[in-house]
């Protein structure tokens, strides 16, 4: 897009703003054709949207005859129809076409842009509207959800998803905090705030009593958020609570959620329903917020030096206690290891990149930690689909990307002119500073399609160059807008600081190491920053912030993205819904694209994709070179990306973002507290603004099997407990047994299992290691303890659930066709015992299947009823409505999805044979998938976050 600031002779009637200015933007076409409306360039079709609860089959939503382009997936159609169409369900006034939705939103942006003098002529405004329509129609980008919910309706025109509140050390302010959060949650958005101004429990009140401290007030806010969440708002309440590391109550704050997690475990073991959304989970506290500690550079240096650190009184600032910094840092890491909270926010880095320090410090963030700016402010988001800029030649179209960013930023700034806000202080701050948050999705898919490993220097360089170009183009357009409609109100006071931060961005761009794929993008980014600085020095800037990286949950599904935000791919095999019903598992379409980019021939690509479709990973795929394995590494699966790989990617793009990054660094269950410390320390050294971790299985609140409700009923109807002692049932002198030889990661051993005459397992013997060795002795003792437990009546399935998926060496490939890969010897042993001694129903709940059973599942077999019939009529492609069987023949690696799954996460669980750490959707019951620091439901589009 090219633009001029000044007169617009020869371009039609001049657009007059409220101020009477004739100056405005001249808009060049990017995608559209003069005289042809974007809607006329696509083929439309009518579809029926019927969304059911995956668990019980009840219909959650139904609307028939909706109109969408034929290239939109079933999932995107379902999400948009159920989430974003406005009007009473079943009434003729309800929207029924994507055209109506886009026109409703774009029409407001078009009219408001004209009204406020953004365009040189009415013709430019029309081109702007058509370009915006084309990009939304073709899933090039999307505004955040509140725009689709509210713009163009009779509701308040709220466009922001992210809010930061302020709370002071007065009861009036604290009660107002509860009220403001409630209003924000009611509208389906999220809020964050810093409680560090509230006096600690170690300080006195003016009346002479002792202060309650911030943690006590967190209880009331948590209960309020839980109540509003349960009231059926658009999405769950999402909130962030931050406390400074020098607050005297910091240790109490750090321990809050870890203590509650311990309580959850005790209640669960006592038989209470402590799942996410469970009937008894409301009895524990602090579960509706993400907690973060705001650490200073002074504190982190004290950790490195192993010195003491002072905790300061809130009212006077004096040091009232001194603690060993390293011990406090270990306490933070220990709590995160136990329950994933608290995260870390690096105060020094955050405020060093602050464009408006004269107007106040940055003390908090939104719930997902990507938006960070002044208290009582908000940010509206939009995200680009990066894969839409990858040409057939495998090159990223940097020039078109820059033009798209410029047009989208223009639209985002226009939205502040007509937007409504939940409180007057938020409205005032947002209108004065005009914070925006442009970002992107599908980075993981883009890197794979271009043949880059996510955790590679080449992949990180490409991500850095794209992010730099995005923010440079956004600020360049912001400077051009400042010349047309003026700078933000707070700019004059913060001009020097704002210019300094822009120079820091440009300097960071100069430090990016380039590779062949990233070099053209980086070159354009360099020239863009140069232009940005020149125009900004002349005009100033229109926006105090321009870019963030949000989770892109629901809008990622709307754009049919394979990956969300900055995340890598979840897995190589995906769950795909089909037109007319049914589903299919299919290898990600970026995989064959990547293989072609890496130089494989058509026949090789088909063979590799077929192998991935069958096995779910690339290990030992026919013809695939080992050095290319890393290109297909995912967030989960046989080859998962190491935690530091996620941190390095965040560090690569952080210098080019106004805000921060919504992302959780996933760590394996066997990770240690020291590993968490290392991650948090490296995040500070690498210049991140915020960081959070999640260790597998660290939380109790995970979904149970289908037997959960039955268990609850059984608990309710159980008679009064009778005290009894377990009785040991010894095996007879002569009993049947079976010996299996095995190899795990090169370690050889033997498993002998002895059974009762009625076929119940009663003892095991494990031979591993040389006779007389420590390992052999430990395994003998272990076998004896398991055998005695079995004879006392402990169910085998209990042992299987406890010991399967344990990770330690030796681990790796086995010689057992039913258990090809084991994470440890114990993992193998108890999977083998389950296969030999447990019925199918119990193994299905544990996710353990034989090779034959997995093969039949892929073919569509339901083992609970024998061979099920395939609904051929329901298996239709989401693109051309061809029968699924033909689609499978045409697409290597495609097959009907197993009947037990309802999402990509559940399909991955079936592949891995173990549960994923993700909650069930509270709307439709589907297992959600990670999206940034939130979770996303592929079934209905619900998210656990705020974007």
Automatic annotation (TrEMBL):
Segments carrying the region annotation (Disordered) are 1-21
State the protein's purpose. Answer: Catalyzes the reduction of ribonucleotides to deoxyribonucleotides. May function to provide a pool of deoxyribonucleotide precursors for DNA repair during oxygen limitation and/or for immediate growth after restoration of oxygen.
Q: Which reaction does it catalyse?
A: a 2'-deoxyribonucleoside 5'-diphosphate + [thioredoxin]-disulfide + H2O = a ribonucleoside 5'-diphosphate + [thioredoxin]-dithiol
- SUPFAM superfamilies named among the record's database cross-references: PFL-like glycyl radical enzymes (SSF51998)
Describe the location of the TSCPD domain by residue ranges. Answer: 732-835
Asked whether the keyword Cell wall biogenesis/degradation is assigned, the reply is no
- What is this protein called in UniProt? Vitamin B12-dependent ribonucleotide reductase
MF terms per GO, please?
Answer: ribonucleoside-diphosphate reductase activity, thioredoxin disulfide as acceptor
Q: Which residues form the Ribonucleotide reductase large subunit C-terminal domain?
A: 160-694
Q: Name one Pfam family in it.
A: TSCPD
Q: Which organism is it from?
A: Pseudonocardia yunnanensis
The Ribonucleotide reductase class II vitamin B12-dependent N-terminal domain is annotated at 49-139
Q: What class of enzyme is it?
A: oxidoreductase
Q: Which InterPro entries match?
A: RdRp_reductase_class-2, RNR_2_N, RNR_lg_C, RNR_NrdJ/NrdZ, TSCPD_dom
């Amino acid at each position: 897009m090219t633009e001029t600031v000044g007169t617009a002779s020869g371009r039609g009637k001049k657009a007059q703003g409220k101020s009477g200015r004739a100056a405005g933007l001249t808009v060049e076409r990017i995608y559209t054709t003069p005289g042809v409306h974007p809607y006329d360039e696509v083929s439309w079709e009518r579809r029926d949207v019927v969304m059911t609860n995956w668990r019980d089959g009840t219909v959650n939503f139904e609307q028939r005859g909706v109109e969408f382009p034929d290239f939109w997936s079933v999932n995107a159609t379902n999400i948009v129809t159920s989430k974003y169409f406005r009007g009473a369900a079943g009434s003729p006034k309800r929207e029924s076409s994507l055209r109506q939705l886009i026109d409703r939103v774009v029409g407001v942006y078009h009219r408001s842009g004209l009204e406020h003098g953004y365009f040189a002529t009415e013709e430019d405004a029309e081109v702007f509207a058509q370009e915006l329509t084309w990009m939304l129609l073709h899933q090039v980008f999307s505004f955040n959800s509140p725009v689709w919910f509210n713009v163009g309706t009779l509701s308040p025109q709220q466009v922001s998803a992210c809010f930061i509140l302020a709370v002071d050390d007065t009861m009036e302010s604290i009660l107002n905090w509860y009220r403001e959060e409630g209003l924000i949650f009611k509208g389906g958005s999220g809020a964050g705030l810093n409680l560090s101004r509230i006096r600690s429990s170690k300080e006195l009140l003016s009346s002479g009593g002792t202060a309650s401290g911030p943690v006590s007030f967190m209880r009331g806010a948590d209960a309020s958020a839980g109540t509003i969440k349960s009231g059926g708002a658009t999405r769950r309440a999402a909130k962030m609570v931050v406390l400074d590391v020098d607050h005297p109550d910091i240790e109490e704050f750090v321990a809050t959620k870890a203590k509650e997690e311990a309580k959850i475990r005790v209640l669960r073991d006592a038989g209470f329903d402590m799942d996410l959304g469970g009937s008894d989970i409301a009895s524990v506290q602090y579960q509706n917020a993400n907690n973060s500690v705001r650490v200073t550079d002074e504190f982190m240096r004290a950790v490195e030096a192993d010195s003491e650190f002072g905790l300061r009184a809130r009212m006077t600032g004096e040091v009232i206690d001194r603690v060993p910094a390293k011990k406090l840092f270990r306490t933070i890491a220990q709590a995160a290891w136990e329950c994933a909270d608290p995260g870390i926010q690096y105060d020094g880095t955050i405020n060093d990149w602050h464009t408006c320090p004269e107007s106040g410090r940055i003390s908090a963030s939104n719930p997902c930690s990507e938006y960070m700016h002044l208290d009582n402010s908000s940010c509206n988001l939009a995200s680009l689909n990066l894969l839409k800029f990858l040409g057939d030649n495998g090159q990223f179209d940097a020039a078109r990307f820059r033009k798209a960013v410029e047009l989208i930023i223009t639209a985002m700034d226009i939205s502040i002119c007509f937007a409504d806000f939940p409180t007057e202080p938020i409205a005032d701050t947002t209108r004065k500073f005009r914070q925006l948050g442009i970002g992107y999705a599908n980075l993981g898919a883009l890197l794979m399609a271009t043949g880059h490993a996510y955790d590679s220097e080449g992949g990180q360089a490409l991500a850095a160059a794209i992010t730099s170009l995005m923010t440079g183009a956004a600020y360049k357009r912001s400077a051009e807008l400042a010349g047309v409609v003026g700078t933000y109100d707070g700019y004059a006071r913060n001009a020097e600081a704002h210019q300094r931060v822009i120079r820091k961005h440009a300097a960071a761009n100069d430090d990016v190491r380039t590779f062949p794929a990233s070099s053209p993008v980086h070159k354009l980014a360099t020239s863009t920053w140069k232009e940005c600085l020149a125009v900004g020095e002349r005009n100033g800037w229109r926006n105090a912030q321009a870019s963030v990286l949000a989770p892109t949950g629901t809008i990622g599904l709307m754009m049919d993205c394979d990956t969300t935000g900055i995340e890598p791919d979840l897995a190589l095999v995906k769950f795909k819904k089909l037109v007319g019903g049914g589903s299919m598992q299919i290898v990600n379409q970026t995989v064959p694209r990547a293989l072609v980019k890496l130089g494989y021939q058509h026949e090789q690509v088909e063979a590799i994709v077929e192998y991935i479709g069958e096995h779910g990973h690339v290990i030992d795929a026919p013809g695939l070179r080992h050095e290319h394995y890393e290109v297909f590494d995912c967030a989960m699966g046989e080859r998962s990306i190491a935690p530091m790989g996620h941190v390095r990617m965040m560090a690569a793009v952080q210098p080019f973002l106004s805000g921060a990054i919504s992302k959780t660094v996933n760590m394996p269950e066997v990770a240690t507290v020291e590993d968490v410390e290392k991650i948090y320390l490296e995040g500070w050294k690498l210049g991140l603004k915020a960081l959070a971790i999640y260790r597998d299985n660290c939380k109790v609140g995970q979904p149970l099997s289908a037997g959960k409700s039955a268990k609850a009923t059984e608990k309710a109807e159980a008679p009064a407990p009778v005290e009894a002692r377990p009785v040991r049932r010894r095996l007879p002198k002569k009993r049947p047994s079976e010996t299996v030889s095995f190899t795990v990661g090169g370690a050889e051993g033997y498993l002998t299992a002895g059974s009762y005459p009625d076929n119940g397992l009663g003892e095991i013997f494990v031979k591993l290691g040389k006779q007389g060795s420590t390992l052999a002795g430990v395994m003998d003792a272990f076998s004896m303890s398991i055998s005695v437990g079995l004879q006392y009546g402990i169910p085998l399935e209990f042992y299987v659930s406890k010991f399967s998926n344990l990770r330690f060496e030796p681990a790796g490939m086995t010689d057992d066709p039913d258990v090809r890969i084991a994470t440890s010897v114990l993992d193998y042993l108890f999977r083998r015992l389950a296969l030999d001694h447990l019925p199918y129903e119990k193994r299905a709940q544990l996710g353990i299947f034989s090779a034959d059973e997995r093969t039949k599942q892929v073919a569509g077999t339901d083992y609970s009823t024998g061979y099920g019939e395939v609904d051929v009529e329901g298996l239709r492609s989401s693109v051309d409505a061809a029968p699924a069987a033909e689609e499978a023949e045409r697409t290597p690696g495609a097959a009907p999805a197993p009947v037990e799954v309802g999402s990509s996460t559940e399909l991955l669980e079936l592949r891995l044979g173990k549960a994923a750490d993700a909650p069930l959707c509270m709307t439709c019951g589907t297992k959600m998938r990670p999206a940034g620091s939130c979770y996303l439901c592929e079934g209905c589009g619900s998210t656990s976050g705020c974007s």
